[in-house]
Amino acid sequence: MMRFIIVFSAYLALISCSSNNQANLEKFDKVYGRCDNPHRQMSDREYNICVAQERAVSLDKEPISIAGIFKKDENSASSQGSIGSTINQFLWQSSLKVLTDYPLKNVDSIGGYIETEPVYDKENLSQRCTIKITILSSQLISNGIDTNIICEQKQQDLWISTNEDFSNEEKKLSLKILSEAQNISNTNLK
Amino acid sequence: MKKIVYLLSAIGAAFAGTAHADISVSGSATSTYASSDANQYVNTSGGIAFALSTTTAGGMGISAAGGITTDLEGTAARGSTGLTSLTFATGGATIVIGNDVAAPQIGNVGGVAGDMVDQGHQTINASPAVGTDADQDGSGISLTTAVGGGSLTAVYVWDGSPSLSGKGQGNPDAADTSMGFSFSMPAGAATLTIGHSTSDDTSSENDTLSGITVAYPAMGGTLSAGYQQSAGQTKATAISAAYSMSLDADTSLAIGIKSADEGAQAASTTEAKISRALGGGASVYAEVKSSSGNSTGVTASAGSSTTFAIGTSVAF
Protein backbone atom coordinates (compact mmCIF):
# COMPACT_ATOMS: atom_id res chain seq x y z
CA MET A 1 0.00 0.00 0.00
CA MET A 2 2.84 2.33 0.87
CA ARG A 3 4.41 1.74 -2.54
CA PHE A 4 1.10 2.66 -4.18
CA ILE A 5 1.00 5.93 -2.28
CA ILE A 6 4.61 6.73 -3.17
CA VAL A 7 4.06 5.98 -6.83
CA PHE A 8 0.88 8.03 -6.90
CA SER A 9 2.63 10.95 -5.22
CA ALA A 10 5.45 10.76 -7.75
CA TYR A 11 2.87 10.94 -10.54
CA LEU A 12 1.43 14.11 -9.11
CA ALA A 13 4.90 15.63 -8.84
CA LEU A 14 5.62 14.83 -12.47
CA ILE A 15 2.39 16.41 -13.62
CA SER A 16 3.29 19.71 -12.03
CA CYS A 17 6.41 20.14 -14.18
CA SER A 18 5.13 19.00 -17.53
CA SER A 19 3.84 20.77 -20.60
CA ASN A 20 3.06 20.17 -24.26
CA ASN A 21 1.87 16.65 -23.61
CA GLN A 22 -0.64 16.61 -26.45
CA ALA A 23 1.82 18.11 -28.93
CA ASN A 24 4.42 15.49 -28.07
CA LEU A 25 1.88 12.67 -28.38
CA GLU A 26 0.93 13.88 -31.83
CA LYS A 27 4.61 14.11 -32.75
CA PHE A 28 5.16 10.47 -31.85
CA ASP A 29 1.91 9.52 -33.63
CA LYS A 30 3.69 10.48 -36.83
CA VAL A 31 6.58 8.14 -36.04
CA TYR A 32 4.77 5.08 -34.68
CA GLY A 33 1.28 5.67 -36.03
CA ARG A 34 -1.52 6.75 -33.74
CA CYS A 35 -2.63 3.19 -33.06
CA ASP A 36 0.83 1.94 -32.07
CA ASN A 37 2.10 4.98 -30.21
CA PRO A 38 3.46 3.44 -26.98
CA HIS A 39 2.28 6.45 -25.01
CA ARG A 40 -1.41 6.05 -25.85
CA GLN A 41 -3.50 3.69 -23.74
CA MET A 42 -6.26 2.07 -25.79
CA SER A 43 -8.69 -0.73 -25.11
CA ASP A 44 -8.80 -3.60 -27.61
CA ARG A 45 -11.97 -2.20 -29.18
CA GLU A 46 -10.52 1.29 -29.50
CA TYR A 47 -7.38 -0.20 -31.02
CA ASN A 48 -9.35 -2.19 -33.61
CA ILE A 49 -11.30 0.91 -34.63
CA CYS A 50 -8.07 2.89 -34.79
CA VAL A 51 -6.51 0.28 -37.08
CA ALA A 52 -9.58 0.28 -39.32
CA GLN A 53 -9.38 4.07 -39.53
CA GLU A 54 -5.65 3.91 -40.22
CA ARG A 55 -6.16 1.45 -43.07
CA ALA A 56 -8.86 3.71 -44.49
CA VAL A 57 -6.67 6.80 -44.07
CA SER A 58 -9.46 8.37 -42.01
CA LEU A 59 -7.86 8.89 -38.60
CA ASP A 60 -9.23 12.43 -38.59
CA LYS A 61 -12.75 11.10 -38.91
CA GLU A 62 -14.88 12.51 -36.12
CA PRO A 63 -17.05 10.05 -34.18
CA ILE A 64 -20.79 10.61 -34.35
CA SER A 65 -21.99 12.81 -31.52
CA ILE A 66 -25.06 11.33 -29.86
CA ALA A 67 -25.84 14.69 -28.27
CA GLY A 68 -25.75 16.15 -31.75
CA ILE A 69 -28.30 13.59 -32.97
CA PHE A 70 -30.73 14.38 -30.18
CA LYS A 71 -30.26 18.09 -30.77
CA LYS A 72 -30.67 17.74 -34.53
CA ASP A 73 -33.94 19.60 -34.68
CA GLU A 74 -32.49 22.38 -32.61
CA ASN A 75 -29.48 22.49 -34.92
CA SER A 76 -31.69 22.67 -37.97
CA ALA A 77 -33.71 25.48 -36.51
CA SER A 78 -30.59 27.49 -35.82
CA SER A 79 -28.72 26.64 -38.98
CA GLN A 80 -29.71 29.74 -40.87
CA GLY A 81 -26.92 32.29 -41.13
CA SER A 82 -29.41 35.07 -41.72
CA ILE A 83 -32.85 35.55 -43.20
CA GLY A 84 -32.95 33.92 -46.62
CA SER A 85 -29.57 32.26 -46.14
CA THR A 86 -28.94 28.53 -46.23
CA ILE A 87 -25.51 28.50 -44.63
CA ASN A 88 -24.70 27.00 -41.27
CA GLN A 89 -24.37 29.73 -38.69
CA PHE A 90 -21.78 27.84 -36.65
CA LEU A 91 -19.50 27.49 -39.66
CA TRP A 92 -20.13 31.12 -40.52
CA GLN A 93 -19.35 32.41 -37.03
CA SER A 94 -16.26 30.23 -36.68
CA SER A 95 -14.95 31.36 -40.07
CA LEU A 96 -15.26 34.99 -39.02
CA LYS A 97 -13.58 34.20 -35.70
CA VAL A 98 -10.67 32.39 -37.31
CA LEU A 99 -10.11 35.31 -39.69
CA THR A 100 -10.54 37.96 -37.00
CA ASP A 101 -6.90 39.09 -37.24
CA TYR A 102 -7.18 40.02 -40.91
CA PRO A 103 -9.09 42.75 -42.72
CA LEU A 104 -11.88 41.35 -44.83
CA LYS A 105 -12.46 42.37 -48.42
CA ASN A 106 -15.70 40.53 -49.12
CA VAL A 107 -18.24 39.29 -46.58
CA ASP A 108 -21.38 37.79 -48.09
CA SER A 109 -23.54 36.37 -45.30
CA ILE A 110 -26.27 35.30 -47.75
CA GLY A 111 -24.03 33.30 -50.02
CA GLY A 112 -21.63 32.30 -47.26
CA TYR A 113 -18.50 33.77 -48.78
CA ILE A 114 -15.56 35.47 -47.03
CA GLU A 115 -12.44 36.84 -48.67
CA THR A 116 -9.60 38.58 -46.88
CA GLU A 117 -7.61 41.52 -48.10
CA PRO A 118 -4.20 40.42 -49.37
CA VAL A 119 -1.85 39.53 -46.52
CA TYR A 120 1.76 40.59 -46.90
CA ASP A 121 5.03 39.54 -45.34
CA LYS A 122 6.54 42.77 -44.12
CA GLU A 123 10.01 41.49 -44.96
CA ASN A 124 9.06 40.72 -48.54
CA LEU A 125 6.41 42.99 -49.97
CA SER A 126 6.59 41.35 -53.37
CA GLN A 127 4.55 38.39 -52.13
CA ARG A 128 0.99 38.27 -50.85
CA CYS A 129 -1.68 35.70 -50.09
CA THR A 130 -5.47 35.76 -49.83
CA ILE A 131 -7.83 33.41 -48.03
CA LYS A 132 -11.21 32.61 -49.55
CA ILE A 133 -13.78 30.67 -47.54
CA THR A 134 -17.12 29.41 -48.81
CA ILE A 135 -19.75 27.83 -46.58
CA LEU A 136 -21.35 25.03 -48.60
CA SER A 137 -23.92 23.57 -46.24
CA SER A 138 -26.72 24.46 -43.86
CA GLN A 139 -25.55 21.61 -41.62
CA LEU A 140 -22.46 21.42 -39.45
CA ILE A 141 -20.67 18.76 -41.46
CA SER A 142 -17.00 18.25 -42.24
CA ASN A 143 -17.38 18.91 -45.96
CA GLY A 144 -19.58 21.93 -45.42
CA ILE A 145 -16.74 24.37 -45.95
CA ASP A 146 -14.32 25.09 -48.76
CA THR A 147 -11.09 26.96 -48.02
CA ASN A 148 -8.71 28.32 -50.61
CA ILE A 149 -5.38 30.07 -50.19
CA ILE A 150 -4.19 31.95 -53.22
CA CYS A 151 -0.72 33.47 -53.31
CA GLU A 152 0.69 35.94 -55.76
CA GLN A 153 4.15 37.18 -56.71
CA LYS A 154 4.77 40.73 -57.91
CA GLN A 155 6.47 40.85 -61.28
CA GLN A 156 6.94 44.18 -63.01
CA ASP A 157 4.06 45.79 -61.08
CA LEU A 158 1.76 42.92 -61.89
CA TRP A 159 0.55 40.39 -59.34
CA ILE A 160 0.92 36.94 -60.84
CA SER A 161 -0.58 33.86 -59.22
CA THR A 162 2.08 31.37 -58.14
CA ASN A 163 -0.29 28.43 -58.71
CA GLU A 164 1.23 26.65 -55.73
CA ASP A 165 -0.57 23.82 -54.01
CA PHE A 166 -1.49 24.77 -50.44
CA SER A 167 -3.87 21.90 -49.83
CA ASN A 168 -2.26 20.99 -46.50
CA GLU A 169 -2.51 24.54 -45.20
CA GLU A 170 -6.08 24.81 -46.50
CA LYS A 171 -6.93 21.59 -44.69
CA LYS A 172 -5.46 22.92 -41.45
CA LEU A 173 -7.56 26.06 -41.76
CA SER A 174 -10.70 24.06 -42.48
CA LEU A 175 -10.07 21.85 -39.45
CA LYS A 176 -9.66 24.88 -37.22
CA ILE A 177 -12.88 26.38 -38.51
CA LEU A 178 -14.69 23.07 -37.99
CA SER A 179 -13.25 22.71 -34.50
CA GLU A 180 -14.31 26.21 -33.54
CA ALA A 181 -17.74 25.65 -35.10
CA GLN A 182 -18.14 22.54 -32.95
CA ASN A 183 -17.24 24.53 -29.86
CA ILE A 184 -19.80 27.21 -30.70
CA SER A 185 -22.37 24.51 -31.38
CA ASN A 186 -21.67 22.77 -28.07
CA THR A 187 -21.98 26.05 -26.22
CA ASN A 188 -25.34 26.66 -27.82
CA LEU A 189 -26.52 23.16 -26.95
CA LYS A 190 -25.82 23.53 -23.26
CA MET B 1 5.70 32.61 -49.62
CA LYS B 2 5.63 29.67 -47.29
CA LYS B 3 6.12 32.03 -44.37
CA ILE B 4 2.93 33.94 -45.17
CA VAL B 5 0.97 30.75 -45.69
CA TYR B 6 2.33 29.30 -42.48
CA LEU B 7 1.15 32.37 -40.59
CA LEU B 8 -2.23 32.17 -42.28
CA SER B 9 -2.74 28.52 -41.54
CA ALA B 10 -1.56 28.93 -37.96
CA ILE B 11 -4.18 31.50 -37.04
CA GLY B 12 -6.72 30.42 -34.54
CA ALA B 13 -4.41 27.86 -33.00
CA ALA B 14 -4.67 29.51 -29.61
CA PHE B 15 -8.41 29.22 -29.35
CA ALA B 16 -9.37 27.84 -25.99
CA GLY B 17 -11.70 24.91 -25.85
CA THR B 18 -15.16 25.34 -24.47
CA ALA B 19 -16.31 23.23 -21.56
CA HIS B 20 -18.86 20.68 -22.69
CA ALA B 21 -19.93 17.09 -22.25
CA ASP B 22 -20.53 14.69 -25.07
CA ILE B 23 -21.17 11.06 -25.90
CA SER B 24 -19.94 9.96 -29.27
CA VAL B 25 -20.01 6.65 -31.03
CA SER B 26 -17.75 5.04 -33.59
CA GLY B 27 -17.35 1.54 -34.86
CA SER B 28 -15.62 -0.83 -37.16
CA ALA B 29 -16.36 -4.08 -38.95
CA THR B 30 -14.01 -6.54 -40.55
CA SER B 31 -14.39 -9.51 -42.83
CA THR B 32 -11.33 -11.65 -43.45
CA TYR B 33 -10.33 -14.86 -45.15
CA ALA B 34 -7.30 -16.49 -43.59
CA SER B 35 -5.35 -19.54 -44.68
CA SER B 36 -2.97 -21.06 -42.17
CA ASP B 37 -1.04 -24.16 -43.21
CA ALA B 38 -3.85 -26.73 -43.75
CA ASN B 39 -6.63 -24.69 -42.13
CA GLN B 40 -8.87 -21.95 -43.51
CA TYR B 41 -11.00 -19.40 -41.73
CA VAL B 42 -13.57 -16.77 -42.69
CA ASN B 43 -14.11 -14.24 -39.94
CA THR B 44 -16.59 -11.41 -39.81
CA SER B 45 -16.62 -9.31 -36.71
CA GLY B 46 -16.87 -5.80 -35.46
CA GLY B 47 -17.77 -3.56 -32.63
CA ILE B 48 -19.10 -0.26 -31.46
CA ALA B 49 -17.25 2.07 -29.13
CA PHE B 50 -18.93 4.73 -27.06
CA ALA B 51 -16.73 7.59 -25.91
CA LEU B 52 -18.02 9.61 -23.00
CA SER B 53 -16.28 12.87 -22.30
CA THR B 54 -16.61 16.10 -20.47
CA THR B 55 -14.48 19.11 -19.75
CA THR B 56 -14.34 20.73 -16.36
CA ALA B 57 -14.53 24.47 -15.86
CA GLY B 58 -10.80 24.37 -15.25
CA GLY B 59 -10.15 22.84 -18.66
CA MET B 60 -9.43 19.27 -17.62
CA GLY B 61 -10.88 16.63 -19.89
CA ILE B 62 -12.35 13.50 -18.34
CA SER B 63 -13.34 10.57 -20.49
CA ALA B 64 -14.38 6.95 -20.38
CA ALA B 65 -15.02 4.44 -23.11
CA GLY B 66 -17.08 1.33 -23.47
CA GLY B 67 -18.29 -0.78 -26.27
CA ILE B 68 -20.08 -3.73 -27.75
CA THR B 69 -17.83 -6.10 -29.57
CA THR B 70 -17.52 -9.39 -31.35
CA ASP B 71 -13.97 -10.58 -31.08
CA LEU B 72 -12.13 -10.93 -34.37
CA GLU B 73 -11.12 -14.52 -33.73
CA GLY B 74 -14.35 -15.52 -32.04
CA THR B 75 -12.41 -16.84 -29.09
CA ALA B 76 -12.64 -14.11 -26.50
CA ALA B 77 -14.86 -11.19 -25.62
CA ARG B 78 -18.30 -10.99 -27.14
CA GLY B 79 -20.53 -8.54 -25.44
CA SER B 80 -19.99 -5.33 -23.57
CA THR B 81 -16.48 -4.16 -22.89
CA GLY B 82 -14.75 -1.23 -21.28
CA LEU B 83 -16.15 1.36 -18.88
CA THR B 84 -13.68 0.16 -16.28
CA SER B 85 -11.29 3.09 -16.46
CA LEU B 86 -11.31 6.87 -16.44
CA THR B 87 -8.93 9.12 -18.33
CA PHE B 88 -8.01 12.57 -17.04
CA ALA B 89 -6.31 14.86 -19.54
CA THR B 90 -4.76 18.22 -18.84
CA GLY B 91 -2.43 20.28 -20.97
CA GLY B 92 0.54 18.65 -19.29
CA ALA B 93 -0.44 15.06 -18.62
CA THR B 94 -2.84 12.22 -19.27
CA ILE B 95 -3.73 9.93 -16.40
CA VAL B 96 -5.63 6.68 -16.79
CA ILE B 97 -6.91 4.95 -13.69
CA GLY B 98 -8.85 1.72 -13.75
CA ASN B 99 -8.72 -1.84 -14.99
CA ASP B 100 -7.49 -1.26 -18.55
CA VAL B 101 -3.94 -0.25 -17.68
CA ALA B 102 -0.86 -2.02 -19.07
CA ALA B 103 2.84 -1.59 -18.40
CA PRO B 104 4.81 -0.66 -21.52
CA GLN B 105 6.51 -3.49 -23.41
CA ILE B 106 9.04 -1.83 -25.70
CA GLY B 107 11.46 -3.36 -28.19
CA ASN B 108 9.46 -5.51 -30.60
CA VAL B 109 8.85 -3.74 -33.89
CA GLY B 110 8.61 -6.77 -36.15
CA GLY B 111 4.95 -7.59 -35.54
CA VAL B 112 3.47 -5.37 -38.22
CA ALA B 113 0.52 -7.61 -39.16
CA GLY B 114 -2.77 -7.85 -37.30
CA ASP B 115 -4.40 -10.55 -35.21
CA MET B 116 -5.78 -12.49 -38.16
CA VAL B 117 -2.44 -13.97 -39.13
CA ASP B 118 -2.08 -15.40 -35.62
CA GLN B 119 -5.13 -17.57 -36.15
CA GLY B 120 -4.10 -21.13 -36.81
CA HIS B 121 -0.45 -20.16 -36.76
CA GLN B 122 1.65 -22.81 -35.05
CA THR B 123 3.19 -21.96 -31.72
CA ILE B 124 6.71 -21.02 -32.63
CA ASN B 125 7.18 -18.53 -29.95
CA ALA B 126 10.69 -18.39 -28.57
CA SER B 127 10.54 -14.81 -27.48
CA PRO B 128 11.13 -12.49 -24.57
CA ALA B 129 8.12 -12.66 -22.28
CA VAL B 130 6.89 -11.99 -18.79
CA GLY B 131 5.74 -15.19 -17.18
CA THR B 132 3.95 -13.87 -14.14
CA ASP B 133 1.63 -11.61 -16.12
CA ALA B 134 2.21 -11.88 -19.84
CA ASP B 135 0.61 -8.64 -20.85
CA GLN B 136 1.39 -6.86 -17.58
CA ASP B 137 -2.05 -5.29 -17.44
CA GLY B 138 -4.76 -5.02 -14.89
CA SER B 139 -6.01 -2.56 -12.35
CA GLY B 140 -3.67 0.36 -11.95
CA ILE B 141 -2.72 3.83 -12.96
CA SER B 142 -0.74 5.25 -15.84
CA LEU B 143 0.65 8.68 -16.40
CA THR B 144 1.83 10.13 -19.69
CA THR B 145 3.51 13.48 -19.58
CA ALA B 146 5.84 15.62 -21.64
CA VAL B 147 9.45 15.89 -20.56
CA GLY B 148 11.05 18.47 -22.79
CA GLY B 149 10.61 17.25 -26.33
CA GLY B 150 9.96 13.70 -25.17
CA SER B 151 7.04 11.75 -23.76
CA LEU B 152 7.25 9.73 -20.58
CA THR B 153 4.75 7.06 -19.61
CA ALA B 154 4.89 5.50 -16.16
CA VAL B 155 2.56 2.70 -15.13
CA TYR B 156 1.82 0.94 -11.88
CA VAL B 157 -0.50 -2.08 -11.99
CA TRP B 158 -1.45 -2.92 -8.42
CA ASP B 159 -3.63 -5.88 -9.32
CA GLY B 160 -2.73 -8.04 -12.30
CA SER B 161 -5.88 -10.14 -11.96
CA PRO B 162 -8.64 -7.65 -11.20
CA SER B 163 -11.35 -9.99 -12.43
CA LEU B 164 -10.69 -12.16 -9.37
CA SER B 165 -12.02 -9.41 -7.17
CA GLY B 166 -14.90 -8.42 -9.42
CA LYS B 167 -15.19 -6.66 -12.74
CA GLY B 168 -14.16 -3.04 -12.48
CA GLN B 169 -12.67 -3.64 -9.07
CA GLY B 170 -9.00 -4.01 -8.30
CA ASN B 171 -7.21 -4.71 -5.06
CA PRO B 172 -4.43 -2.19 -4.26
CA ASP B 173 -2.86 -4.80 -1.96
CA ALA B 174 -2.91 -7.64 -4.49
CA ALA B 175 0.10 -9.95 -4.69
CA ASP B 176 0.62 -9.74 -8.45
CA THR B 177 1.82 -6.31 -9.43
CA SER B 178 3.64 -4.75 -12.36
CA MET B 179 5.29 -1.44 -12.92
CA GLY B 180 7.23 0.08 -15.75
CA PHE B 181 7.99 3.07 -17.85
CA SER B 182 8.68 4.08 -21.42
CA PHE B 183 10.31 7.21 -22.71
CA SER B 184 10.41 8.49 -26.27
CA MET B 185 12.56 11.33 -27.47
CA PRO B 186 13.86 12.75 -30.73
CA ALA B 187 17.53 11.99 -31.39
CA GLY B 188 18.48 13.98 -34.44
CA ALA B 189 16.31 12.76 -37.29
CA ALA B 190 15.60 9.55 -35.42
CA THR B 191 13.19 8.81 -32.58
CA LEU B 192 14.40 6.75 -29.66
CA THR B 193 12.15 4.85 -27.26
CA ILE B 194 13.30 2.92 -24.22
CA GLY B 195 11.24 0.94 -21.77
CA HIS B 196 11.54 -1.27 -18.75
CA SER B 197 8.90 -3.13 -16.77
CA THR B 198 8.89 -5.59 -13.93
CA SER B 199 6.24 -7.95 -12.60
CA ASP B 200 6.22 -9.92 -9.39
CA ASP B 201 4.02 -12.25 -7.43
CA THR B 202 4.59 -14.31 -4.31
CA SER B 203 5.33 -17.61 -6.04
CA SER B 204 8.16 -16.84 -8.44
CA GLU B 205 11.09 -14.55 -9.03
CA ASN B 206 10.42 -11.17 -10.51
CA ASP B 207 10.12 -10.98 -14.28
CA THR B 208 11.58 -8.05 -16.11
CA LEU B 209 11.23 -6.91 -19.70
CA SER B 210 13.47 -4.24 -21.18
CA GLY B 211 13.65 -2.87 -24.67
CA ILE B 212 14.76 -0.14 -26.98
CA THR B 213 13.56 0.95 -30.41
CA VAL B 214 14.90 3.42 -32.91
CA ALA B 215 12.77 4.79 -35.74
CA TYR B 216 14.37 6.67 -38.61
CA PRO B 217 12.84 8.23 -41.72
CA ALA B 218 14.33 6.54 -44.78
CA MET B 219 13.44 6.15 -48.44
CA GLY B 220 10.11 7.89 -48.04
CA GLY B 221 9.05 5.72 -45.13
CA THR B 222 10.06 4.83 -41.60
CA LEU B 223 12.72 2.29 -40.74
CA SER B 224 12.57 0.87 -37.22
CA ALA B 225 14.84 -1.40 -35.24
CA GLY B 226 14.30 -2.90 -31.82
CA TYR B 227 15.97 -4.98 -29.15
CA GLN B 228 14.10 -6.70 -26.33
CA GLN B 229 15.28 -8.77 -23.41
CA SER B 230 13.46 -10.56 -20.62
CA ALA B 231 14.77 -12.04 -17.38
CA GLY B 232 13.16 -14.10 -14.66
CA GLN B 233 11.05 -17.09 -15.65
CA THR B 234 11.76 -16.44 -19.32
CA LYS B 235 15.30 -15.53 -20.20
CA ALA B 236 15.29 -14.46 -23.82
CA THR B 237 16.41 -11.85 -26.26
CA ALA B 238 15.04 -10.67 -29.58
CA ILE B 239 16.06 -8.30 -32.31
CA SER B 240 13.58 -6.96 -34.81
CA ALA B 241 13.28 -4.51 -37.65
CA ALA B 242 10.45 -3.04 -39.67
CA TYR B 243 9.93 -0.74 -42.58
CA SER B 244 6.69 1.05 -43.36
CA MET B 245 5.82 3.46 -46.13
CA SER B 246 2.97 4.92 -48.11
CA LEU B 247 2.98 3.90 -51.75
CA ASP B 248 0.49 6.67 -52.52
CA ALA B 249 -2.13 8.67 -50.64
CA ASP B 250 -4.33 5.59 -50.17
CA THR B 251 -1.93 2.66 -50.08
CA SER B 252 0.47 1.72 -47.32
CA LEU B 253 2.95 -1.10 -46.95
CA ALA B 254 4.87 -2.53 -44.00
CA ILE B 255 7.25 -5.43 -43.50
CA GLY B 256 8.81 -6.65 -40.29
CA ILE B 257 11.24 -9.35 -39.18
CA LYS B 258 12.07 -10.71 -35.76
CA SER B 259 14.70 -13.13 -34.55
CA ALA B 260 14.58 -14.44 -30.98
CA ASP B 261 16.59 -16.74 -28.74
CA GLU B 262 15.21 -18.34 -25.62
CA GLY B 263 17.75 -20.67 -24.06
CA ALA B 264 18.32 -23.48 -26.56
CA GLN B 265 15.28 -22.45 -28.58
CA ALA B 266 15.25 -20.01 -31.44
CA ALA B 267 12.61 -18.60 -33.75
CA SER B 268 12.38 -16.14 -36.59
CA THR B 269 9.27 -14.46 -37.90
CA THR B 270 8.55 -12.36 -40.96
CA GLU B 271 5.35 -10.34 -41.29
CA ALA B 272 4.10 -8.08 -44.05
CA LYS B 273 0.94 -6.14 -44.75
CA ILE B 274 -0.46 -3.90 -47.44
CA SER B 275 -3.67 -1.92 -47.25
CA ARG B 276 -5.54 0.38 -49.56
CA ALA B 277 -8.20 2.90 -48.60
CA LEU B 278 -11.38 2.86 -50.67
CA GLY B 279 -12.90 6.03 -49.24
CA GLY B 280 -15.81 6.33 -46.86
CA GLY B 281 -13.84 4.62 -44.12
CA ALA B 282 -13.50 1.37 -46.06
CA SER B 283 -10.28 -0.40 -46.93
CA VAL B 284 -8.96 -3.70 -48.23
CA TYR B 285 -5.84 -5.36 -46.92
CA ALA B 286 -3.62 -8.39 -47.19
CA GLU B 287 -1.29 -9.72 -44.50
CA VAL B 288 1.14 -12.60 -44.23
CA LYS B 289 3.10 -14.13 -41.36
CA SER B 290 5.78 -16.77 -41.68
CA SER B 291 7.61 -18.33 -38.74
CA SER B 292 10.30 -20.93 -38.38
CA GLY B 293 12.27 -22.35 -35.49
CA ASN B 294 11.51 -24.20 -32.29
CA SER B 295 8.35 -24.33 -30.28
CA THR B 296 9.06 -23.65 -26.66
CA GLY B 297 8.32 -25.94 -23.75
CA VAL B 298 8.75 -29.64 -23.05
CA THR B 299 7.45 -30.71 -26.45
CA ALA B 300 9.64 -28.28 -28.29
CA SER B 301 10.32 -29.24 -31.87
CA ALA B 302 11.53 -27.61 -35.01
CA GLY B 303 8.90 -26.41 -37.43
CA SER B 304 7.55 -23.71 -39.61
CA SER B 305 4.20 -22.08 -40.21
CA THR B 306 2.75 -19.61 -42.69
CA THR B 307 -0.53 -17.73 -42.49
CA PHE B 308 -2.04 -15.51 -45.18
CA ALA B 309 -5.05 -13.26 -44.73
CA ILE B 310 -7.00 -10.94 -46.99
CA GLY B 311 -9.97 -8.89 -45.98
CA THR B 312 -11.82 -5.66 -45.82
CA SER B 313 -12.46 -3.40 -42.89
CA VAL B 314 -14.72 -0.42 -42.46
CA ALA B 315 -14.44 2.35 -39.92
CA PHE B 316 -17.82 3.94 -39.23
CATH class label of chain B: Mainly Beta
SSE string of chain B, helix = H, strand = E? HEEEEEEEEEEEEEEEEE
CATH architecture label of the largest domain in chain A: 2-Layer Sandwich
Please report the number of helical segments of chain A.
7
Spell the H/E element sequence of chain A: HHHEHHHEEEEEEH
Largest interchain contact: A-B, 80 and 93 residues
Q: Predict the CATH topology of the largest domain in chain A.
A: Alpha-D-Glucose-1,6-Bisphosphate, Chain A, domain 4
Mean pLDDT of chain A: 78
What is the helix fraction of residues of chain B, given as a range?
under 10%
The tally of strands of chain A reads 7
Within the CATH hierarchy, at the fold level, what is the topology of chain B?
A: Porin
Q: Bin the strand percentage of chain B.
A: over 45%
What is the helical fraction of chain A, as a range of percent?
40-55%
- Outline the biggest β-sheet of chain A: 6 strands, antiparallel
CATH A-level architecture of chain B: Beta Barrel
What structural class is derived from the secondary structure elements of chain B? mainly beta
Summarize the structure.
Chain A is of the alpha+beta class. Helices cover about 45% and strands about 20% of the residues of chain A. Chain A is built from seven helices and seven strands; from the N terminus they run H-H-H-E-H-H-H-E-E-E-E-E-E-H.
Q: Would you mind describing this structure in some detail?
A:
The complex is a heterodimer of chains A (190) and B (316). Chain A has 190 residues and is an alpha+beta fold. Chain A has 2 domains: 2-55, no CATH class; 80-189, 2-Layer Sandwich (Alpha-D-Glucose-1,6-Bisphosphate, Chain A, domain 4). Helix content of chain A is 44%, strand content 22%. In chain A, strands 2, 3, 4, 5, 6 and 7 form a 6-stranded antiparallel sheet that branches. Chain B has a single domain (23-315), classed as Beta Barrel (Porin), CATH 2.40.160. Helix content of chain B is 3%, strand content 61%. Chain B contains 1 helix and 17 strands. In chain B, strands 1-2-3-5-6-7-8-9-10-11-12-13-14-15-16-17 form a 16-stranded antiparallel barrel. The interface between A and B is large, with 80 and 93 residues.
